[in-house]
């Protein structure tokens, strides 16, 4: 577990490579009750102008914060987390799914002893979450 005394602005967190599969979309839809057909019906998704079935934005958001929780070793260390949804993550109908690359760095040490973490999530080299930040408290 990382300690607050060991952290400075500019520190880079270990990156994560995350896969999102169609099976993940089914599980997330069941848990969230978000059964919008853009998340499971290829034809419908394309008819509304999407490249195909896309991941739920909140699923992508939830998976991306793992870069922070893996670093802290404690999901409870995340006090705040917010993002803007930038681009959809198309999820192909195969075993590999979509690969989302997540990186993060300590953007700022705040006056209250917490840390602002800037998070980047990209699919095929393009950002999918904008302004993603988390505020964490470390021991």
TrEMBL record:
Residues 14-107 form the MaoC-like domain. Signal peptide: none annotated. SUPFAM superfamilies: Thioesterase/thiol ester dehydrase-isomerase. GO terms for biological process: fatty acid biosynthetic process. CDD domains: SAV4209_like. This is MaoC dehydratase-like protein. One of its GO terms (cellular component) is fatty acid synthase complex. InterPro entries: Fatty_acid_synthase, HotDog_dom_sf, MaoC-like_dom. One of its GO terms (molecular function) is fatty acid synthase activity. Belongs to the enoyl-CoA hydratase/isomerase family.
